[in-house]
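Ligand-bound model needed. 3,4-dihydroxyphenylalanine.
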Amino acid sequence: MQEWYEKIKNSTSQKELEDIRVAVFGKKGILAAEFAKMKSLPNEEKASFAKELNTHKEALMQLLTQKKEEISLKELESAMKEEALDVSLYSFKSNTGAFHPVMDTLDRIVEYFTALNFSLQTGSMVEDDFHNFEALNLPKYHPARDMQDTFYFKDEMLLRTHTSPVQIRTMTKQKPPIRMIAPGAVFRRDYDLTHTPMFHQVEGLLVDEKGKVSFANLKYILEDFLKYMFGDVNVRFRPSFFPFTEPSAEVDISCVFCKGDGCRVCSHTGWLEVLGCGIVDPNVFKAVGYKNVSGYAFGLGVERFAMLIHRIGDLRSLFEGDIRLLEQFA
Ligand code: DAH
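Prediction:
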């Protein structure tokens, strides 16, 4: 009998087990053969013989069932391993997108002013001499035109040198009061570390009844705006000249690199110029036929803001299309 215990224990497949089962429990199996021997035994031995056989029968059956489960579990495991499907699909490494720092900066500027109910105006990049210069109190042969040399077409058409013509276009289209900003691309004949032939500006204009708009209003909003953009900086207004404003000012913030101590970026002055502004010149209102109004205006370069916010050293790198620049912002 003992050998069958071993055989069951050592079997490795269902088929083997089934063969053993038939050999042990089958009609012609060894148990049947053993029980058959009882007939020829003396009566007093029959009971203990049968008992012993039944014990084996039970024990063998139990072992067989146990082994059967063990084997089917193993078979299942190996079948799962073999048949396992790799449902994952090879994918290309995907790149995370990022906003271009110029557009990101522009978005923040627009966000600030639209929250204060400034409307968003757009003009045309190809402008005429009247809107770009003449109506802005920049007559032909005015020396201030020299600073804004541009690309000219026929018939006094040109690539706009600033977003200020949108002031004129909006005022001729609408009645006061006006509260607008105009973001967009502008063009100049410039190319160096801090100038590219195309860059972006945001123009601002507020017009209301005469006496209602003061330099104090302008100063307040620009200071608040610059703190929104640059954080905790000092702001100062310097007297300056623009043909379309009088008085005019240039606005500086304390240097974001050295916090005002003086460094290479701020030419050791502690200050960085960030925008131009002023009270709208009466000649501008005359050019659009506005009477009894007052207003302020301002204009800024978006790339300059982006460079200061993101500490970018060379303005030209913003337009070279090098993906590594964008990856830094992803
Ligand atoms: N248009 C000026 C420029 O491009 C910027 C500017 C200065 C705009 C003063 C304004 C302003 O509206 O009031 O340099």
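Residues 162, 164, 203, 242, 245, 276-278, 297-299 surround 3,4-dihydroxyphenylalanine (CB under 6 Å).
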